[in-house]
Design a protein that fits this description.
Elements: H1 3-10, H2 49-61, E1 66-70, H3 73-81, E2 89-93, H4 98-108, E3 114-118, H5 123-129, E4 134-140, H6 152-161, E5 165-169, E6 187-191, E7 205-209, H7 212-225, H8 231-242, H9 244-263, E8 268-272, H10 282-288, E9 295-300, H11 305-312, E10 319-320, E11 330-332, H12 344-349, E12 357-360, H13 366-389
Parallel strand pairs: 2-3, 2-4, 4-5, 5-6, 10-11
Antiparallel strand pairs: 1-7, 6-7, 8-9, 9-12, 11-12
Helix pairs in contact: 2-8, 3-4, 9-13, 11-13
């Protein structure tokens, strides 16, 4: 069944009323017939009908056993890390979202969980880096912000052979583009704030578990820690998922056109987009992804923060903001925004250059977006000349 059809008909009609749109069950508790005798719901932190629809939906789309909804993407990541104990080690991709880096390094490190970083786009490097204390391999593919592609199936085999948990952050791709559990992942996380919600109007996170045992553990953590997603936000994510295949296809088509245009610009040093044949792991991406996604990153020949700032403040259609995956195009300067919490030398070593700019290509016409970038390059150059003269 085509994923467009699958998504729409995986969202149930309300059994009570026949409502074709999932109702928002805005309640904190449920009346019971007797102590412990209820209709499957007793307290809204533990479960909620609207949330249950979303959790079942994401589990089905990711081909997992069960899914769980959290108040943010970081809350979802936090729940996975809580599967570990003091002395355990996370082997994480070096090009990591700054919020995840902050959580790993500044929160869990003090509880005795060790963190090591490796270029997961190099499968041999991952194999060499797995140590006796490694309990979790953590990767993003594509990664944030330099769009590294890791061979999920190959790393999944390594993890299974070494009895190590394997989690993939699938935020940049979404289940429309790839399903990491089918490639060997034990866990998948999403910042549903991004493509799943799709309209820049909510904060949400999701965890999908490949097996019942992991599902029971994440469910316990969700209930015990309480970082649940509210019913209205669950409704918004469900509504966003209904149009996800159409949006992802358009994002991807426009991003490829823009990436090819950027490659031809004299001001651009390097373009990071897995749909380009010049991308380091283009062949892997073409094998495990249906589309190449809507995120592009690029560096400038004049590799300074000042040059990047001039450019990102010169666009009209690309709005300068954190986040991604919405209907409107966004741009950001990771060194001073999304990845500011990562020490400068570590950030640069992972490929996040001072001039790196990340684009989230929205649903506007691609030619309008290219014209906007062309104007911004021209304006930024003029601004730079004025500053130099001053």
């Amino acid at each position: 069944m085509n994923i467009n059809t699958q998504i729409l008909h995986s969202i149930p009609v309300d059994a009570l009323t026949g409502a074709i749109s999932v109702p928002i069950y805005q309640t904190s508790t449920y009346v019971q017939e007797a102590p412990g005798v209820n209709k499957g719901f007793d307290y809204a932190r533990s479960n909620n009908p609207t949330r249950l629809v979303l959790e079942n939906l994401i589990a089905k789309l990711e081909h997992g056993h069960s899914g769980y909804a959290f108040a943010s993407g970081l809350a979802a990541i936090d729940a996975v890390v809580k599967l570990l104990k003091s002395g355990d080690e996370i082997l994480a991709i070096d090009d990591l979202y700054g919020g995840a880096f902050r959580l790993f390094t500044h929160v869990y490190a003090k509880f005795g969980i060790k963190i090591r970083y490796v270029d997961t786009a190099d499968t041999a490097a991952v194999a060499a880096a797995i140590g006796p204390d490694t309990r979790l391999i953590w990767l993003e593919s594509p990664s944030n912000p330099t769009l590294k592609i890791s061979d999920i199936a190959a790393i999944g085999k390594l993890a299974k052979a070494r009895n190590v948990l394997f989690c993939v952050d699938n935020t940049f791709a979404s289940p429309v583009i790839q399903q990491p559990i089918l490639l060997g992942a034990d866990l998948v996380v999403h910042s549903a704030t991004k493509y799943l919600g799709g309209h820049s109007d909510l904060i949400a996170g999701l965890v999908v578990c490949a097996c019942q045992e992991l599902g029971e553990q994440i469910k316990f953590i969700q209930n015990a820690s309480g970082g649940i997603l509210a019913p209205f936000d669950c409704f918004l994510v469900i509504r966003g998922i209904e149009t996800l295949p159409l949006r992802v296809r358009q994002h991807s088509e426009s991003a490829l056109l823009i990436a090819r245009w950027l490659q031809k610009q004299p001001e651009v040093q390097e373009v990071y987009y897995p749909g380009l044949e010049s991308h380091r792991n283009h062949a892997v991406a073409a094998t495990q992804q249906l589309y190449f996604g809507g995120i592009i990153s690029f560096t400038l020949r004049e590799d300074t923060e000042e040059t990047a700032v001039r450019l990102v403040t010169s666009t009209r259609l690309f709005k300068l903001a954190e986040s991604l995956g919405g209907a409107k195009s966004l741009c950001c300067h990771p060194a001073q925004m999304t990845h500011k919490s990562i020490p400068v030398e570590k950030r640069r070593a992972a490929g996040v250059a001072d001039s790196l700019i990340r684009l989230s290509v929205g649903l506007e016409d691609a030619h309008d977006l290219i014209a906007d970038l062309a104007d911004a390059f021209a304006l930024a150059a003029v601004s730079g000349d004025v500053l130099e003269q001053a």
